[in-house]
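Problem 12. The chain below contains 170 residues. Write out its predicted structure in token notation.
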Amino acid sequence: MTFEVSKMDGFDQKLIDLLRKDGRMSFTDIAHQLGVAVSTVRNRYNKLVADKTLHILGWVDPTRASYNSYSRVTIDVKPSSRIDAVAKQLAQIEEVSFLAITSGPSAIEINLMCIDNAHLLEILQKKIHPIEGIYDTTSTIYYEVRKWASHTIEPWTKNGNEKYPQQHAD
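Solution.
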């Protein structure tokens, strides 16, 4: 995986800030608020999406969508040469809502959104454990999520003004 430094300017940041507040805001409304032409907003938006700096998602609260068993699963993979293949197979499982290759005692971490604990057990036993290379799993059920991902994350700064490079995966 390679990373590129995103070349975002102040306009990009203002555009992203407005979309964070209201992801359904029209280009016309954004253009009005920023004092630019609609075509400027459209072109910049398309550039940010094309270079994978901006991702537009419809986020669903799993508890309000009848997913009452939300859990984290750490996965040990042996041999380690199977990590990428295992991750690709896990990514195809509909109930996997998050997947990362990690450092530490486990090679992979996933989050599962399941209807109930019986559904969770079925996914673990029938879809995850049979994957070649999975050696062990550890599950943690989230009883109550008190904070979801922040929608107002600001870019990191150092020395109060210089921004760290924003990076994204190809």
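Discussion. Residues 8-59 form a domain with the Arc Repressor Mutant, subunit A fold (CATH 1.10.10.10). Students who got a different answer should revisit the alignment rule from Section 12.3.
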